[in-house]
Amino acid sequence: MSTPNFGQPEYGFGGMHPSEGYSWPSLELRDLIGSSGASIQWRLAAIFLVALALSDLSWLLIQPLLERPIQMMPLPVWMMALVTDLIVAAAAVMSFRWIRIPVAAAAVTAVGISLLTLPLRWQSFHFQQLKWAIFYFASTIVFNFLFFTGLALGVRWMKRLLLGLLLGGLVGMLLHQVVFTVSLKALQDATTRFSFDIKSVVILLLNAVIFAVTFWGGLQLPWARFTPGQEPTAVPLYPLTGRAGELQQAADYFAVGKLLRPAGIGSVVFGIVAIALGSSMMSENPINAILAVIGVFLLIEGVWVMAAPAPAGMIVDGIALIVLGIWNIIVTISNASSGASGPHFFAILGLWQVVWGFQSFGRYSRFSGRVSGKPPQELINQVAAISKSLAAKGASQQPEVMEFTVGVKRAKRTWKGKLLDDLAVFSIEKEADFIVADKSSVNFSQQSGVSSAGGVSVSFNIGSRSGDATMTSNQFEKYQRWKPS
After folding, report:
1. Mean pLDDT, to the nearest integer, of 34-60?
2. What is the per-residue pLDDT for 414?
3. Spatial separation of the C-alpha atoms in residues 287 and 276, rounded to whole Å
């Protein structure tokens, strides 16, 4: 598939992301389901709904064929499945339109679907014990969250759109099957052997294939295209002369968001699992209500730190992780002391959660005085574009990018710098750290009498940072060409 130009009025999705050659972030699920742009693209939402419906209807058709005797699903079940799919599609389109962070949008979608479909399932819940009603309600939330999270991440990370849809949906479904099976085992009989229903796994695989192929095929239709005003655009280059201080603030804000994003995703995942487990086992022991409350706190905290990243979020995230970790340790020790047998996984996980919590406190001390509010969005976009260009494969081969190494052995770090007209932006490998400095504050000098195999040994001063480094002669020549101009 040829790559379209930005000058064209519209473009299709095709088999690959149409992003090669552009300063354009990866395709997002919100683009595919019509949630991006000035208005909802209903034709894309309709394709998404059809893919959901065909996937569910295939399950209603195939599942009875695997049973003996064969007994087809009654018509009301088919109608309820279609109504449910309509609710799922609507909830997803609206949630991903209002919330730009995929994991947060998936969480809101999951909760919305469970609440909106509750009247359809109320009759079946009415005749069940409370613990089973809570269990299946929580299971619906977990399934939809994992399904939409898998889709969103699969579309973002996989180069092939069809493969992203297939793997994203399938991984989400299989993770739910694991959580569902473990929770069901805990509720029924903790002594029963852990096992999967092979037929259910086969049906999940078939559903994922039907959904992915149908959705991908629908997106290939001539009328399934972005309209003018909706297509992703290149990040514009704003004048940066004399704005090194403002760009540094934007870089710090971007770094905080980059650090909090995986923390927020972890909190949302831990939160939903804690809500599901705590709610489903509350009738067995009321103390499990504490786990459900912790889960609600984690879920809200995770969405908050992703939607409004700030250093204070690192403190809240640290507290949440430590509380959950202590809970997991205490419960594991309590079960062991009472003679109950079981895996010590949660105790180990709890120890790591406590460690992660204190690490979050350390990140707060690093950024607490550097981020006081949200900088202009155009500067954040500029930092994001620079960060992406520095992280790209082969970035150091570009004439405006220089690379050097600082430290030795385990402390060794690679620095990369984007050399702009009158300033430079440097990033440090394995650290969410950016340094912005005017050209006059960037100085490299070759160390006399010091040799480095295949490279140049230098001393550097970049803003308030200084030290010794090594780089190739080619990289040092880039600096020499940039500095006097």
Report:
1. 80
2. 87
3. 14
Q: What strands, in cross-sheet order, belong to the sheet with 465-471?
A: 434-438, 423-428, 413-419, 401-406, 465-471, 456-462, 442-446
Determine contact, residues 417/424, Cβ cutoff 8 Å: yes
The closest of 447, 454, 453, 442 to 402, measured between CA atoms, is 442
pLDDT value for 309: 81
Which residue type sits at 415?
A: W
Here the tokens at position 298 are: 């984690």
Q: How far apart (Å, rounded) are the C-alpha atoms in residues 53 and 259? A: 38
Measured from the Cβ of residue 478, the count of other Cβ atoms closer than 10 Å reads 20
pTM comes to 0.55
98-102, 191-195, 235-239 — which is least confidently predicted?
Answer: 191-195
Q: What distance in Å separates the CA atoms of residue 13 and residue 22, rounded to the nearest whole number?
A: 15
**Could you report the per-residue pLDDT of 301-353, keeping only the tens digit for each?**
887 887 778 888 889 888 988 988 898 888 888 777 766 555 577 788 889 88
Residue 222 pLDDT greater than 70, yes or no: no
Alpha helices, DSSP H only, in 338-429? 345-367, 377-391
**Residue in 300, 301, 292, 269 with CA at minimum distance from that of residue 137:** 292
Domains and CATH numbers, the chain: 29-219 (no CATH), 244-367 (no CATH), 392-482 (2.30.29.30)
Distances (CA, A) of 297 to 10, 110, 164, 291: 43, 17, 31, 10
Q: What is the DSSP letter of 411?
A: G
405, burial (CB in 10 Å: exposed 0-12, middle 13-18, buried 19+): middle
59, burial (CB in 10 Å: exposed 0-12, middle 13-18, buried 19+)? middle
pLDDT at 166 exceeding the cut of 80: yes
Query: Which residues, in sequence order, are bridge partners of residue 458?
Result: 446, 469
**Which residues lie across from 467 on neighbouring strands?**
460
Distance, in Å, from the CA atom of 110 to the CA atom of 114, rounded to the nearest integer, reads 6
How far, in Å, are 2, 363, 386 from residue 233 at the CA level? 18, 33, 16
Q: Which residue has the tokens 């440097």?
A: 426
Residue 266 burial (CB count, 10 A):
18
